[in-house]
User: What shape does this take?
Amino acid sequence: MDLQQKIHSKIAERRDEYIDFLKQIVKEPSTTGNELGAQTLMADRLKQSGLDVDVWIPDYDELVKSKFFNPLRDNYEGSPNVVGVLKGASNEGRSVILNGHIDVVPSGEESKWTHHPYSGEVVDGKLYGRGTTDMKGGNISTLIALETVMALGIELKGDVIYESVIEEETGGAGTLAAIQRGYKADVAIIPEPSEMRIFPKQQGSLWFEIEVTGLSAHGGTRYEGVSALEKGWIVFNEIMKLEEKRNAPLRNDPLYKDNPIPIPINIGQFNGGYFPSSVAEKAKIQGRYGVAPGETIEEAKEQFVNMLENLKTIDDWFEKHPATVKWGGIHLPPGGCELDHPMLEILKEKYADVEKKEAVLAGSTWGTDGGLLTQAGGIPSIVFGPGTTSMAHFTDEYVELDKLFKTAEIIALAIIEWCEINSIKK
Amino acid sequence: MDLQQKIHSKIAERRDEYIDFLKQIVKEPSTTGNELGAQTLMADRLKQSGLDVDVWIPDYDELVKSKFFNPLRDNYEGSPNVVGVLKGASNEGRSVILNGHIDVVPSGEESKWTHHPYSGEVVDGKLYGRGTTDMKGGNISTLIALETVMALGIELKGDVIYESVIEEETGGAGTLAAIQRGYKADVAIIPEPSEMRIFPKQQGSLWFEIEVTGLSAHGGTRYEGVSALEKGWIVFNEIMKLEEKRNAPLRNDPLYKDNPIPIPINIGQFNGGYFPSSVAEKAKIQGRYGVAPGETIEEAKEQFVNMLENLKTIDDWFEKHPATVKWGGIHLPPGGCELDHPMLEILKEKYADVEKKEAVLAGSTWGTDGGLLTQAGGIPSIVFGPGTTSMAHFTDEYVELDKLFKTAEIIALAIIEWCEINSIKK
Assistant: This one.
């Protein structure tokens, strides 16, 4: 048996055990602030596997020193980070970080789910539940890769650092804390739901909150007021025009050729008014702003602020009542690696070996912790994971188990080639 | 001295006493459910004046039998209605109801008030406080009118029924209960804040709540979802078109000639989405729907529902995901009287006598209990009161005292002419 066959067999042997473990992790509703249960399971597992495990509560006072930090809360009690290290035999070996977040977005209306969002039910080769695709399934695939390398008695030259971090969905504090704690490597793989495509470029994303002001009046004489809802729709439309403008240059990028909106601006929430028969005096527009790979957060913000300032040329009202923006929550810079990075070549090769077809390269449609690894940590980052892209944050989210195990196989092979074999215990 | 001079002198004599009484009433924060203090003052006053006073708790089981009832609560303990009757000398005399609500809307942020909302402070001829204009000031003006008639020893042929009712601001249960208890008259005057204009037509109003459905997706691939916000905006626009269509026929009505939107549809609240970087799957649109004088609630609802059903011809999405409406909260039918109603002539004439100028007739911009009196009670209703229209529901609400006393004078004269003098005690 060659190495690939051995890896394949070893994973196949333990398939049911891994499915059970993924179910356990999915059953923990690890939304922001509620990560403890899932992280305890992860830490225990990494310890059992024989890694050096580090569990710690991210330190607000330390985080706040970084310009990449965007505080959502001011303490992380009950929300530990977990890192497990497989130390390489040589100081010269190339190291790799396997980074994945444990937090999940809220389930939305549970009644709409065919399978309860925290059930982990398996039907037709798909494991269902909130976070299965984004990204607990991915995290299990890198865990499998790492455990399989160890199970085969392979000693690597370089370090493998397995990171199970908190709070990617709401800001990236977990990965930033891991960087600040000193976890560095020559490259990072992040198994976010790329559907087994390889993403050497990952857009960043920012959350914005716009406040629009109107003038209240009785609904029966609504013409005496100014509706913040109507003014809010003007802002809404201008945001959509900005999206169009910002995406135009990316339409010729081969990494985005199949993507109708490479860097979307998603207006996720619009809330305004306080009484049915009063004219709304405030509206709040909240959303997610895609930052282009290669763009800085500062550049992206400037375009957004200019759009808001320009509103007064469209409607006089904004002259004296400007729409204002606050940035909060997600604040992920774009990430990636050079297009000739050797890990990219390795991943493509291993993908072809396992899948018997050429890998698809693309740019990510969302921000990931790869931006922090790249920009705050100086670590080239590649996204490659098994999850179904369209199911992230979706009702009836699932991960395809075959893809999960194939991803594990490819990553195991890639780790071995990247970190190099020092010895194999028989 | 002619009758008008006598009335004027009598009112002037007791001016300070009435201001004190209004202050006492304003100091009672008679929001929905908290009417007892103010109603006790009113009942005691009516008794002292020599009326037959009826104080009772509206009966939910009785109210619920009426199609005009829109329940906000299921019992009225602590919220009595008060009616005082001045019985006329003849069974043939024309009767009149003087109807006013004792409930007030909440004060909003008290810190924004220059004068505390329940202080009843008088500055520069204005008495400040929540409910002064809407409509405790009006209620005092009709009380003054009635007491003045009595103080002058005038015995009327027809009955005068003074109603101090609960819960106009949140549904009309008080007036409906008074109708059910058997209080009927040939005409009703409601001293809502018309700013001494005479409103022979009063629009009704309904509160609506529309739910719009989208399809959630990750914000980074928002093109895979369907935004309930964008769909909601289509609904918003269609509501505005319906408003335009419904108002067109009223634009030639002389009563609405100075009103840019005679029967407004006010969209007061728009709330949708649950997460900045998810596509919104629900949006809720809440507002206030003006019902045209002469229109039934059923007819108005039908137009609204048709508009919603028509959405599918504008956007296929609504075919399988129809926008739905619930009606709740305010549910006031339109009211009014014939334009050749003799009481209307009397009010115009008495207004001219007192004010030395022609009365302004208009249609009300809001619903009042006049709708229930007209449609549930079959009693023609006219709104005529001293309050400042724009101050209703507003911070620093006030009533102008001169207008209050002039209104009292006009109403006293009108009552005497309408009910006719049977005898005068010397």
Observations:
- The mean pLDDT of chain B is 95.
- Chain B touches chain A through 54 residues (CB under 8 Å).
- Residues 122 and 290 of chain B are 34 Å apart (CA to CA).
- The radius of gyration of chain B is 23 Å.
